[in-house]
Amino acid sequence: MKQKAIYPGTFDPVTNGHVDIITRAANIFPELIVAVATNKAKKPYLPLDTRIRLLQEAVGHLSGVQILGFDNLLIDFVLEQNAGIILRGLRAVSDFEYEFQLAGMNRKLSKQVETLFLTPSENLMFLSSTLVREIAALHGDISPFVPDSVVNELLKRQKEHELQK
Ligand code: ADP
After folding, report:
1. In angstroms, what is the span from residue 7 Cα to ligand 1's centroid?
2. Distance between CA atoms of residues 65 and 87, nearest Å
3. The whole model's pTM is what?
4. Do residues 36 and 52 touch, judged by C-beta distance below 8 A?
5. Could you tell me the end-to-end alpha-carbon distance of the chain, in angstroms, rounded to an integer?
6. Is the distance from CB of 54 to CB of 14 less than 8 angstroms?
7. Residues 4, 51, 88, 129: which is the catalytic one?
8. CB burial class (10 A; 0-12, 13-18, 19+) of residue 159?
9. What is the pLDDT along the chain (165 residues), one digit of tens a residue?
10. E strand or H helix at 66, and its extent?
11. Which of 122, 126, 162, 127 is closest to 147 using CA atoms?
12. How many whole angstroms separate alpha carbon 15 and alpha carbon 142?
């Protein structure tokens, strides 16, 4: 049970930073669930099923990796799945304070679950889904930062959006 890890996030959209963390984690854990938060409060740009499909296309081939959506409390989802580990990615210092608070709170909610952190390759440290969405909205080239299927999906949505104007 302790070998099963959950990597939660919004993945709006999945970036090469996420793919880097998932690839590293898939080499460590026999079972890894990438848990995609509905996160209605954050009003995601992409619907949940699209975020799941893009992850499936990017990392679905990795052995032991499963992609699931969830809309309950993370710790409840982790316990429901019989997992013992929450995995998070850590970028530069900016992530630390929030992640430290989150890990502390999750430990208060369940002592059976540990939070572990992985860092990505140096060249992905600066990358976030928010920046990718902003670059795409201003017609910048996002292809160095995301899987090809994400480039195509964002371009398609942008064209549809511009036709509606
Ligand atoms: P964000 O926190 O940017 O809205 P997510 O919720 O999708 O993104 O992130 C899920 C997890 O992946 C978080 O732990 C986040 O810190 C981590 N992460 C996001 N981008 C990167 C990256 N470029 N490198 C490493 N970890 C990342």
Report:
1. 10
2. 13
3. 0.94
4. yes
5. 51
6. yes
7. 129
8. exposed
9. 458 999 999 999 999 999 999 999 999 999 999 999 998 787 999 999 999 999 999 999 999 999 999 999 999 999 999 999 999 999 987 788 999 999 999 999 999 999 999 999 999 999 999 999 999 999 999 999 999 999 999 999 988 887 787
10. strand 65-70
11. 127
12. 10
Sign of CA dihedral 32, 133, 125, 72: negative
Task: Look up 42 and say whether it is catalytic.
Answer: yes
Is 128 among the residues known to form the active site? no
Q: Report pLDDT for 16.
A: 98
Instruction: Choose the catalytic residue: 4, 18, 51, 88.
Output: 18
Beta bridge partners of 117: 88
Distance, in Å, from the CA atom of 122 to the CA atom of 159, rounded to the nearest integer, reads: 33
* Ligand 1 binding pocket includes 10 (Cβ within 6 Å): yes
Are 159 and 69 contacting, i.e. CB atoms less than 8 angstroms apart?
no
